[in-house]
Amino acid sequence: MISQRVRGLKAYKTETTPAKVKLSSNELNVDFPDYVKERIKEEVSKIPINRYPDPKAEKLKEAIAYRFGVKPENILLGNGSDELIYYLSIAVGEFNRGVFYPVPTFPMYEISARIFGRDRVEVPLDRNFDLDLPSSVKAIQEKDPVLAYFSFPNNPTGGCFSEEKINAIRNLGLFCVIDEAYYHYSKRTFLQEALKSDSLVILRTLSKIGMAGLRVGILIGREDVIYELDKMRLPFNITYPSQVIARLMLTEFYDLIEKEVQKVIREREKLFESLRSFKELEVFPSDANFILFRVKSMSADELHSKLVERGVLIRNVSYLPGLDGCLRVSIGRSEENEIFLQALHSVLSL
Ligand SMILES: *Cc1c(COP(=O)(O)O)cnc(C)c1O
């Protein structure tokens, strides 16, 4: 009795192989100091777990609004931005109108479109992994999608698309979602435009700044847009522990998070240069907390499994369109990046 729509799906893939050094999910590899853990314990021990949490997560929303420079009325929270992508793929336009996104990109746009049986208008990126504007315009005019997703910077290619090209697509009248999951690493945003528009929202998340385990995604938009979208939110979608811990981290320990993010940005530049010194690799510039590269001297599968043998897990993305031979490595702490580079060196010089 399960529908063809669902039977045809492939489950979202994550790397779960255990490894000493895990650089596969673009997390912030920070081990918070003991005084932070103590404060978390203290706050968590006060939670009445027999009670439902605040359905509106007001205190957490206030902390997020303050940090992101918006009002609580501009915010909709989700159980990760993945949940918010589901909501958008349900709420924007009728199901008989399609969803546009460039490929390769973050898989949830495709998965959510498929789940709701919507047409997928996929247009390959150009050779610089930027939007191919002529092909995009043509596809949009032919297939008339109503919703567009842009991962900005794009996961897994790492760079930001040209803002002019995004704006050109916005001008075709689609509802546009700018997924700024890596905002803290790129510092580029459509936030001000989103606050003014009834056809543009942005997505942020706490997952890439040290809180992936809490599952807090953030949609920011104009008050009236948020008001409508909030009607479909599942009640209590942010758990009590997540509300409490995320708020604590954003109020008392935000400086620490910002410092860790700055470290990753510095490490990104170092790792980029180190990777570029391998003649067997083609390395792509990144505005995010990961780097995409192509290996030319062996297959991506082989490199991936040889790194796993050496205790290093990165993401093999070579099965994605246009990414043959490509792997994606998340930026870890200095010593983790060093272990990765040594492992890479030993595999490539075999
Ligand atoms: C990691 C990632 C997300 C997922 O965010 P969650 O809040 O953890 O669900 C969303 N979009 C992009 C582009 C990502 O890379």
How would you describe what is shown here?
By secondary structure, this protein is α/β, with parallel strands linked by helices. Helix content is 41%, strand content 15%. It has 14 helices and 13 strands. It has helices at 4-7, 34-45, 58-68, 80-91, 108-115, 133-143, 163-170, 183-186, 191-196, 223-230, 240-252, 254-276, 300-309, 334-348, and strands at residues 21-22, 75-78, 99-103, 120-124, 147-151, 175-179, 200-205, 217-220, 281-283, 290-295, 312-313, 315-316, 326-330. Helix 3 packs parallel to helix 11 and helix 4 crosses helix 5 (108-115). The mean pLDDT is 96. It binds pyridoxal-5'-phosphate. The site of pyridoxal-5'-phosphate has 13 residues, from helix 4.
Any chance you could write out the topology, listing elements then pairs?
Blueprint: H1 4-7, E1 21-22, H2 34-45, H3 58-68, E2 75-78, H4 80-91, E3 99-103, H5 108-115, E4 120-124, H6 133-143, E5 147-151, H7 163-170, E6 175-179, H8 183-186, H9 191-196, E7 200-205, E8 217-220, H10 223-230, H11 240-252, H12 254-276, E9 281-283, E10 290-295, H13 300-309, E11 312-313, E12 315-316, E13 326-330, H14 334-348
Parallel strand pairs: 1-11, 3-4, 3-5, 5-6, 6-7
Antiparallel strand pairs: 2-8, 7-8, 9-10, 10-13, 12-13
This protein binds pyridoxal-5'-phosphate (PLP).
